[in-house]
Specification:
about 80% helix, about 150 residues, mainly alpha
């Protein structure tokens, strides 16, 4: 009886770890979604009202949001996902399951330039970086036209 109870507890813990992993990944995607929507809003706002001061403020906001999105992506990958997969591997071993999940490698912001590397977190990081560059370029163009 105790063995079944322990197994049930381990299974519940495993389920919770996978749910946490999925929730973390969803938050990372949501950050990219927000940055993308702000980019569309920036361009639409600029075309509609044509006021450089407002566009400059919106560009700075987008740059900050994209920068924070990059930080969140890196933190989620390097801290949360790595820890979750360590726990998942350990729980699966305790349950007697084949635990062959490769631990996610840590990423740094400059990995956006390493074309030979590819994973979901790095894709999101690259997209946030592109939106950051777009915001800075858009701001530069608007400031030069003032």
């Amino acid at each position: 009886m105790e063995n079944k109870e322990n197994r049930d507890i381990l299974l519940k813990l495993l389920e919770i770890q996978w749910q946490d992993h999925i929730q973390t990944r969803n938050q990372t995607w949501k950050g990219l979604e927000i940055s993308t929507l702000l980019t569309v809003a920036l361009v639409g706002l600029d075309w509609q009202i044509d006021q450089p001061a407002v566009t400059c403020v919106a560009s700075v906001l987008l740059a900050l949001v994209a920068l924070f999105g990059m930080q969140i992506t890196i933190r989620h990958r390097n801290n949360v996902e790595v820890k979750k997969f360590e726990i998942i591997n350990d729980l699966e071993r305790q349950l007697g399951l084949k635990s062959d999940h490769v631990l996610p490698g840590k990423i740094k912001w400059w990995f956006v330039f390493l074309i030979n590397r590819s994973n979901t977190s790095l894709f999101i990081l690259r997209m946030q970086f592109i939106l950051l560059l777009f915001a800075v370029c858009y701001l530069s163009v608007r400031l030069s036209g003032m």
